[in-house]
Amino acid sequence: MLELLGNFTVQTVVIGAVFLGIASGLLGCFAVLRQQSLMGDTLAHAALPGVCIGFLIAGSRHLGWIMAGALGTAVVAALFVQMVTRHSRIKTDAGLGIALSVSFALGVVLLTYIQGQSNASQGGLDSFLFGQAAATQREDLWFMGGVTLVALVLVMLCWKQFKLVTFDPLFAGSIGLPVVVLESVLTSMIALAVVVGLQMVGVVLMTAMVIAPAVAARQWVKQLHHMVILAVVFGIISGVIGVLISASVRHLATGPVVVLVISAIVAVSILLSPGRGVLWSWIHRQRERRTIGQRQMLTTMYKLAAHHDDPYYPVERSMLDSFYGVRTDAILKRLHNQGHVAPASHMPTEGIHWTLTDTGYSEAVRILQSIGAEPSP
């Protein structure tokens, strides 16, 4: 697969995928942390009328005009959502839904109008819906790289302000920061990431590239700068691998493959990440369940021993089974391995008996004291 990197077209698309990974990973983190994940979807759909307007202005598929138009309409949609939610009783989700549906409907109308004209250069304009990475030209990379560089510079210059507005906008406003302006800039920057990905993955799938790298990175780290770096890495990896896979299989669209790769990274992160992963949480719950069962068993045997005034009172296993309503073999064996209980001989006609060891007796006393239950003398 690596030998494909020698192909000129593949090299171009890979570089574009790298720019897409950097922009989406960088800016998606702020969208996810500000609980504006649907903002990426809205801005991606809002870019479609801008694509059509850019085409009408240029009269051809000039990527610079098309992306400039997409950026303009995406920013307008973002500012519309912010204005409506701030100055009316409409909630954020409703504002996002209005902006998404209206802008996408306008884009479809404009696209239909353009396709009804006799202009031959409009062919393939609808590829911006799902992306057409193979159509990326070297001169297009300059525009994509410039947009990515602008995003990087803005984040570096306003890192502290963006971080404060993201986590505590009320405190940011109390110390005099222009919260509304900073939030508008952050939201508009998400539009930059959308614009970078239009050629690669298209309007419909771009929301995944804005959100998925940040979601995957959030599972592994706890600090914002680590999250941003890891999201960028995930974005680049998914972009490059997706391009190479689509280039190695004929008639395989690049954009959907890139989205599937980053989705696989998200799935692995959700399952396996330490501390937050589903598998880790399941293991942790199982350990806690075993620990609670062992603590309950020790305290039960201690209370029986105290009741019979015999610290080594032998307790029949079947009685413990009846008391807990389940078989207690596994718990008793674990406690035996830990040296807290030991098998005891009793009447030959009765079942297996267990008794506390000195260590188990001391551990039971410690457990009762830790929960505020005074053990019997």
From TrEMBL:
The keyword Membrane applies. GO terms for biological process: cellular response to iron ion; iron ion transport; response to zinc ion; transmembrane transport. It is found in: Cell membrane. The keyword Transferase does not apply. GO terms for cellular component: ATP-binding cassette (ABC) transporter complex. Keywords: Cell membrane, Ion transport, Iron, Iron transport, Membrane, Transmembrane, Transmembrane helix, Transport. It comes from the Bacteria. InterPro entries: ABC_BtuC-like (IPR037294), ABC_TroCD (IPR001626). It holds the Pfam family ABC-3. It is a multi-pass membrane protein. Belongs to the ABC-3 integral membrane protein family. This is Manganese/zinc/iron transport system permease protein. It comes from Halospina denitrificans.
